[in-house]
Design brief:
alpha/beta; Peroxisomal Thiolase, Chain A, domain 1; 10-stranded mixed beta sheet; 10 strands; about 35% helix
């Protein structure tokens, strides 16, 4: 999809100091396992203490990021709330399953089950902002955030909304980290983010985070110009799709001033990026964003936040984000000024 969908404001909670103040990217130092945890802000500035007690990490992260984004955009009530998540509230899901086993399906506390549903964050945002308009959550693995973006763009394009709050949120639990490590998602040896791309080993570093955006048709300094998704493509199909995508927007590869990629050091899938860079962008500066946030289903939301930060700090006129999630879901997002 193409058009001009302007970003009015952003907010992010990530393994970086991204929530407030001037953003300066820093590579974290891991101590015992390949996992990047978010740096959590003081939630009490946005959520009442009596509510905080009952909320899991991802609910706090998602709600606080959304409220901060609306605050930064000077929008009190959005016309639509659209999000993407790959796993939702993992801690609440696991807690409820443990309770089922422990109490043998009797005397169960319903709160973890209620909060484990994928749209819990959306519901909390709607309650907090008193938004009774369109509300949708996409749970499509590596396409979760991209589909939220696409839906947001459609809402604006059809005139159904003037300001759309779009975002994504993800947390990683100890049990989920262990399960995914057993099937080869993460690197076996402790690998620092600084060495991730040159490790030459399978797997990557796990991450988590939350990022939100207010999109509108009212002009601002940065806009999303296009979005393209591919499911389980070959390398040749990815290359052809990128060429067509650039031509559709009347751009040449050299017009892209910054390429933000999801390269994560996994030798099983990094060839997608390497071959595309060699063919289209041999001289273009590349920023591999997963060194900063780790790998997770909706990591592309952090990439978009990072792109907006770079462009607002005097970055290039055109930025291209290319991300793929374990070889299956591939996406291109084009931004302009």
């Amino acid at each position: 999809m193409k058009g001009r969908f302007y970003i009015q404001g952003t907010a992010a909670i990530s393994p970086q100091e991204s929530f407030s103040g001037t953003f300066t990217p820093q590579l974290a130092r891991l101590e015992d396992r390949n996992l990047l945890r978010v740096k959590e802000p003081d939630y009490r500035d946005f959520i009442a203490p009596n509510s905080l007690r009952r909320m899991s990490r991802v609910l706090k992260m998602g709600l606080t990021t959304a409220l901060k984004c609306l605050q930064n955009s000077n929008v009190a009530v959005p016309d639509a709330i659209i999000t993407g998540t790959g796993k939702g509230s993992l801690h609440d899901t696991e807690r409820f399953l443990h309770d089922i086993r422990q109490y043998k399906e009797t005397a169960l506390n319903p709160t973890p089950f209620i909060q484990s549903t994928y749209n819990s964050v959306n519901g909390l945002i709607a309650l907090q902002t008193r938004c009774t308009q369109y509300n949708n959550t996409f749970v499509h693995r590596g396409f979760s955030f991209e589909h939220a973006l696409l839906d947001s763009m459609m809402q604006l394009n059809e005139g159904a909304a003037k300001h759309v709050l779009a975002g994504a949120f993800e947390e990683i639990s100890d049990e989920h980290f262990y399960i995914k490590s057993r099937i080869g998602f993460w690197k076996e040896q402790l690998t620092q983010p600084a060495d991730m791309l040159t490790s030459g080993t399978p797997g990557t570093i796990s991450g988590e985070g939350s990022a939100f955006f207010v999109l509108s048709t009212a002009p601002s300094d940065v806009h999303i110009a296009g979005l393209k998704m591919l499911y389980k493509p070959t390398q040749e199909q990815v290359s052809t799709a990128l060429g067509n995508f650039l031509r559709e927007h009347q751009l040449q590869p050299e017009d892209i001033g910054l390429l933000i990629t999801g390269r994560n050091g996994d030798v099983n899938f990094d060839f997608y990026y390497q071959e595309l860079i060699a063919q289209y962008f041999p001289q273009t500066p590349e920023l591999p964003f997963k060194q900063l946030c780790g790998e997770y289903d909706t990591a592309s939301a952090f990439a978009l936040w990072l792109a907006v930060e770079r462009m607002r700090a005097g970055g290039p006129e055109h930025v291209l984000i290319y991300n793929q999630f374990f070889g299956e879901q591939h996406s291109f997002v084009l931004l302009g000024r």
